[in-house]
Amino acid sequence: MGDDFAFVSLYNRYKAPVYTYCVKMLFDTEAARDAMQETFLRVFENRGRLLNTDSFRAWTFTIARNQCLNQLRRMKRQVQLDETLAATLHQVVDDQPGVRLEKSERAALITYFLGRLKPEYREVIVLREYQNMTYAEIAAVTRSTLSAVKSRLFKARRKLAQTMEPELRREQQRVEGLGEKCASSTPRGNEGTS
To answer: Greater confidence, 110 or 83?
Structure first.
């Protein structure tokens, strides 16, 4: 009975972070929900193997990672962001020159670019930036060395920046163009009066 109560407590604590990880890896809410449920089913089935609850987080994310990789293999291709969402994101950027992106729009844009990364790059960014895991925890989850995690994270961030750079440059040019347009439309009759 105590084991069941402890499991429910751990499930309630980790279900949202595991689901978020799965969504950011798979870009499909149904597949993410399935991966999360399968993760906690495996955790429950193997709960006796975990002696140290300090490593529960890394152990759970290792299982979630494996479930996501299985899902990706089943799909036989890297999951791309839904085309309608991609069109919406480009519309937000293209149709609103000079308007700073709202926080939710920026998050959606970053999610879009995350979806364009290889799964091994995407996972380290998601674990580090969205799950706030240490390098050691990421190494445990991905079954890598600490130096491999640091290297993969560096490459992933660089690739993400390279992918985002043209879009960000276009947005900056639009903002600068709007500023110039506003400056040139200022009434000239008010010059020199103070």
So the answer is: 110
Per-residue exposure over 73-102, b if at least 16 CB sit within 10 Å of its own CB, e if not: eeeeeebebeeeeeeebeebbeeeeeeeee
Domains present along the chain, CATH in parentheses = 1-79 (1.10.1740.10), 88-183 (1.10.10.10)
The number of CA neighbours under 13 Å toward the Cβ of 82 is 9
51-92, pLDDT tens digit by residue?
Answer: 666 688 888 999 999 999 988 887 754 444 444 444 444 544
Please write the tens of the pLDDT for every residue from 137-167: 999 999 999 999 999 999 999 998 888 888 7
User: CA–CA distance from 102 to each of 96, 116, 166, 178 (Å)?
Assistant: 11, 22, 19, 18
**How far apart are the C-alpha atoms of 109 and 127, rounded to whole Å?**
18
Instruction: Please name the residue that has the structure tokens 């009066």.
Output: 193
CB of 94 closer than 8 Å to CB of 60: no
What spatial distance separates the first Cα and last Cα of the chain, rounded to whole Å? 80
Q: How far is residue 5's CA from residue 173's CA, in Å, rounded to a whole number?
A: 56
> Is pTM, for the whole model, over 0.70?
no
